[in-house]
Amino acid sequence: MDDTRTGGLSLGSVIFLVAALLVLLAVGIPAVINYQQGASTAAFEVIQALSRSASTRSYIERQRERELELLAVSLATEPYFISYVDEAMQGSLFGDVAISSQSINDQLIERRNESGFDLAMVFDTEGALLGHSERLFDGEWFDEAPQIATALDTLTLTTGLWQDSGQFYQFSVVPMDSGEVVFALLGVGLLIDQAYIDEIERVTGAEQVLLAGDRVIASTLPLNDTDQLIARITATEGGVAETETDQRLQLPSGEWALNVSAFSDQVEGLTAISLISVDRLLATQKAQLSTLMFSALGALALGLVLSLVLARWIARPVSRLVDAAARASAGDYQVHTTDTGTREVRQLAGSFDRLLQDLRDKQDMEEYVADLSRYLPDPTIDHSNSASVDAAIREPERATLALIGLDLMRFDQHIQGDASQRIRSFQGFLAQAAEISHSLGGRLESIYGHRAVIGFAGADAVEQSLMFASHMVSRESRQQPSLALVYGDVDRGVVRAGASSGGVVLGKTSAQLDQLLQDASVGQLLMSPAARERVTRSDAALTLTPSIQRGRLSGKKYYALSRMELAGVREQALSAERALETTRIDGESISNSPGMEVFPGDILAGRYDLLSVLGRGGMGRVYKAWDKELQDFVAVKTLLPEIARNTQYLEQLKDEIKLARKITHVNVVRTYDFGSFQEMPYITMEYVRGMTLRYLMKQRSKLPFSAALRICRQVCAGLQVAHEQAVVHRDLKPENVILEANGNAKLMDFGLAGLVDKLTSDQSGGMFMGTVLYSAPEQMTGSDLTPAADVYAFGVMMYELFLGKKPFDSSAVMLEVYQAKVNEQYTPPSEHWAEISDDLSRVITTCLRHDAGERFKSARVLLNQLLELQS
Amino acid sequence: MLTTRYLFEDLMVGTRHTSRGWLIMIVAMSLWPWLSVQAASLSGKIDVTDRRDRPQTAEYMVIYYRPDDSVDLTEREQTVVMQTRNKNFEPRVLPVTAGSTVNFPNLDPILHNVFSNSGQNRFDAGLYSEGPGASQRFENPGLVRVYCNVHQNMVGHILMLDTPFYTVADVTGRWQLDNLPEGSGTLYVWHERAKPVIQKQSVQGDRQVDLTLVLSKPIRPAHKNKFGKSYRDRRGQRGRY
Question: For A317-337, what is the mean pLDDT?
Answer without folding.
Answer: 78
